[in-house]
Amino acid sequence: MSTVRPVRPGRASHPRTGRPTLASHPRRDRLTLTSLRWKIAALAAVTACLVAVAVGLLVHFWTAHDIRDRAEMRAFNSVYSAMDTYRRTGTLSDGAQLDPPDLPASLRHPTDGDRHTAYDGRVDGNSGPTVWGAQRVGGPGSPVLAVEVNMNPDLYGLRRLDATMAVASLASVAAAVPLAVYGAGLIGRRLRRVSETARRISAGDLDARTGPTVGRDEVAEIAATVDLMADSLGRRLRTERQFTADVAHELRTPVGGLLAAVDLLPDGEDGDLLRGRVRDLRGLVEDLLEISRLDAGAELPVHAHVPLDGVVREAVTRTGLDAEISVAEGTHTVETDPRRLERIVSNLVVNAHRHGAGPVEVGVSDRTVVVRDHGPGFPADLLRDGPRRFRTGAEERGSGHGLGLTIALGQAHVLGAELRLDNAPDGGARATLRL
């Protein structure tokens, strides 16, 4: 069954209320890189990378500091052992040297006889960086005994540790991202379910509900709120429809009596004016009753095989208004409810005369009827939101109750037809009915 709607990409009108629906958009339905799932996955990946980098840097600097501390301790102890041996035997041990040429300047002329250490960052092949330990052999002017501790083997181990940390971090990120995608997918599916329910409610399906949701988190709270909103809207809309139906039913009898009474008035300008206003009032009551039946879904079509051009001509004749009717070749008999089809066409013709400007043209071809005028066209808000009851749009479109298009849309839905509203490129409002 076709959707009854004004022309606007991605939007449709609800068949009963005439309000716009949000049609499914392919780009909106696809999983894109901007979806919540991939945003959460990207956030998890960035967080895992930041944690891995932070832990890697912490381990690197802590290990490097520990390596230097241990090298300084080894140099300090080596100087102590070598100095003890040199003083006892006069020989150098543990790689000790007297006044070596590469000794850092800070250790070459110590101001006291205590042991000192210094870091030398020079690298020569596989040697370096190093830590020197030094102490004067005797008093001032005596040679300096120094021991060099090469840190390169320990730093090689540090580089291997860095590589291991990098591989472990990449493995952690590779494991964290799929888990984040899966978890985000669970949340995304629940949110899409709530979004689809909200979209159906906005389209006029007030029976749509999200239903029970797993968990007690924010998503479940949103779903419950949407269901409560639908319940509240449903109650208000049912109250509004019932009120409209009750008012129309209550007015029908007194208006009928009033019409019978004014028919007894003598002919004259005052009597004709009063009879015309009463007939307008009766038409309004009948329109309200028809809308209440359409809202309640109580209308059922009675199909018959009828010539499309004949039904259209009869509908235009019944309006008593001028319209240029053109019938294309090859127009065939259609299976439809002729009474409802006449109602749709007559409402469109009356709307074109009341709110547009002549000439009004009615085109019939195959299973399509097009009614257009040469007035200011449909207002932008009507094309955007669909026709609304008791709202006629722009002031320049004339007066009325705003029920004609609403009834036409509802009757088209009953027929399973599609009614599109737009403005012609060369000006004027255009309504296209496709059976």
Helix fraction by DSSP (H/I, runs of at least 4): 40-55%
Largest sheet: 5 strands, mixed
User: Strand order across the biggest sheet?
Assistant: 8-10-11-13-12
Please provide the ordered H/E string of secondary-structure elements: EEHHEHEEEHHHEHEEHEEHHEE
Number of helices, counting only DSSP H or I runs of 4 residues or more? 10
Number of strands: 13
Runs with pLDDT <50, length 5+?
1-31, 396-401
Number of domains: 3
- Inertia-based shape: rod-shaped
Written account of the structure:
It catalyses: ATP + protein L-histidine = ADP + protein N-phospho-L-histidine. By secondary structure, the protein is an alpha+beta fold. The chain folds into 3 domains: 20-203, no CATH class; 228-296, Signal transduction histidine kinase, dimerisation/phosphotransfer (DHp) domain (Helix Hairpins, Orthogonal Bundle); 298-434, 2-Layer Sandwich (Heat Shock Protein 90). It has 10 helices and 13 strands. It has helices at residues 26-29, 36-89, 105-108, 152-202, 218-262, 269-296, 308-319, 338-355, 380-385, 404-415, and strands at residues 11-13, 20-22, 97-98, 116-120, 130-136, 144-150, 304-307, 324-327, 333-336, 361-365, 368-372, 418-423, 429-434. The protein has a 5-stranded mixed β-sheet, with helices on one face. The longest helix has 54 residues, at 36-89. The protein is rod-shaped. Mean pLDDT is 76; it is low at 1-31 and 396-401.
